[in-house]
Amino acid sequence: MSNAATDLPDSVTLAEGEGGLPVVRVATAVATGEVYLQGAQVTAWTPAGSDPVIWVSGAARFAVGEAIRGGIPICFPWFGAGREPGLAPPAHGFARLVGWRLIDATDDAGAVTLTLRLTDADVAGLPAAAAWPHPFTATYRVTFGRELAVALTVENTGDAGVSFEEALHTYLAVSDVRATAVVGLNGAPYLDKTAGATPERMTQRGDVTFGGETDRVYGSVGSVVVRDDAAGRSVGVTKEGSANTVVWNPWVEKAAAMADFGDDEWPMMVCVETANVLDDAVVLAPGERHTMTARYTVTR
Ligand code: BG6
User: Fold this and answer.
1) Going by CA atoms, what residue is nearest to atom 8 of ligand 1?
2) Which fold has domain 12-299?
3) 248: Cβ below 6 Å to ligand 1?
4) Residue 116 burial class via C-beta count within 10 angstroms: exposed 0-12, middle 13-18, buried 19 and up
5) What's the pLDDT at 3?
6) Which element (helix H / strand E) includes 253?
7) What is the pTM (predicted TM-score) of this model?
8) From ligand 1's centre to the CA of 22, what distance in Å?
9) Lowest mean pLDDT: which of 128-132, 139-143, 240-244?
C-alpha cells in the first residue's frame, strides 16, 4: 500500500489536514487518532470516554518542511543539536520535517495499526540529510486503540557501521503542569540541560515536579506514570529498547520565545520522551536493526 492507499479499512481515511498537509485519520468505537505523513507525526489520540491525551499547540505551524509543535515528533537521526558539530540545523534531525509513506493500515477489532516508512532514498538531495549520509530504513508502527503504541525500527541498510540518536518526543496534555508529577524516575541519574552550555549531572530524588523550566535527559529504562491529579487521571508510559527518558517543559520565557507556542500554553503540556541519546546513541552493524517502543495508557 502506498500513499495513494486505496485499500484502507473503513475506520481509516487519508485527508487534507491543516495547511493542506496529508493526514491519516482513525476513528473506531475504541479510539480516535491522527498522524500527519510529514514526520509520521501523531497529533491526536483520544481513547473512548477520555479527554485528548496528546497535546498540540494552538500556535503550531502546519507547513511543508516545518516542525509541528506538539503530538509525537520523531527525532532522528540526531537529538537537539546532535553529538557532532555540523548536524544541526535542523534541531532534532530531519525525520520530523519530511514526508513518510503510509505502507499499511489494518483494523483489528477497533485497534488500528498504521505503518509508515522513510528511507535514505526519500531524503536524498535534501540539505538537512547531507550531514548524515547513511543508508537506512526507518519503519514506524502506530496502534491507536485503548492504548497508544508507537514503535520505531531503524535498519542499517549500508555496508558500514552507523550510529544515531532517536526520540519519540511526546507532548502529553495535562491540566496544569505545576500540579503534575512524573513518577518512576526516583534515583535515576540525569543531565540538567537548563544549566547552560555544560549540562549538570544530577540524581533524581522522588517524583519529578515542575516549578520552572525543566529540560532533563534521564538514564532510565523503566516505565513512568504522569500523574495529573487535578484531572483525576494518570497516563502510563512503558517502553522497550530505550535507555533515556527526556522530560521537558519550557515554562514562561522559553514558551514566549517560540513563535509556534502560545505564551500561556506551557502549563497545559509536558513532554515525556522515550529516547536513545548522547552516550546511549544506537550503534548498528551493517544489516542490523533496532526497535524502540513506547506505550501509553490512561487510568482514572
Ligand atoms: C527537548 C529538548 O527534547 O525538545 C529541549 O530537550 C528542546 O532542549 C525541546 O528545547 C524542543 O525542541 P524543538 O526543536 O522542537 O523546539
Assistant:
1) 215
2) Beta-galactosidase; Chain A, domain 5 (2.70.98)
3) yes
4) buried
5) 47
6) helix 251-257
7) 0.96
8) 24
9) 128-132
